Amino acid sequence: MTTPEPPQPQPADSGVPRPLAEWGTRAAGFLIDWVPAAIIGAVFYRVAFFNLLAGLASAAYWAYIGHLEGTTGQTPGKAIMGTRLVNQHGEIIGSGPGIGRKFAHIVDGLVCGLGFLLPLVDAQKQTIADKLINTYVVTGADRKPFAIELWMPPRQESSG
Question: I need a labelling partner for 133 at 20 to 30 A (CA). Which of 5, 63, 71, 75 fits?
Fold first, then answer.
């Protein structure tokens, strides 16, 4: 397994890793990540008791995806699209901020979903959640083919 290349170095005064991912690439990655949550909701949609279970399962799924993104820089959708999430120094953000960012996307949806469209007009191509957590989605990571392993935690290399 190859490690994605870090973002290209920038002048010290820029504070923004490059190259930033375009909105369409980000949206495609999000849609790939969203499919399992939609399936969970569709399966449990008809039965009221199961709506609670579907909501809990969906929240657990998004927390896990946030953890995965925070610890590896990629969700399955980002891995397929060749993007990754980093902080202003081009570093992985960690589990807690990754989970926080996923749930901060709720703010992106509060004003008719306009926060998700903000990267179309923002110079730093950030959503409101990105601005709150101080993250950037950048290109340059190896694109990976669709595989169930993308949803699995990364294997720890054993020493010895």
Answer: 5
d(CA 62, CA 36): 10
Torsion angle of C-alpha atoms 46, 51, 55, 61, degrees rounded to 10: -50
What's the full length of the chain, in residues?
A: 160
Q: How many helices (H) and strands (E) does the chain have?
A: 6, 2
- In sequence order, the 6+-apart residues with CB closer than 8 A to the CB of 33 are 65, 75, 76, 77, 78
pLDDT along the chain (160 residues), means of 10: 51 72 94 88 70 83 96 96 96 96 94 93 96 96 92 73
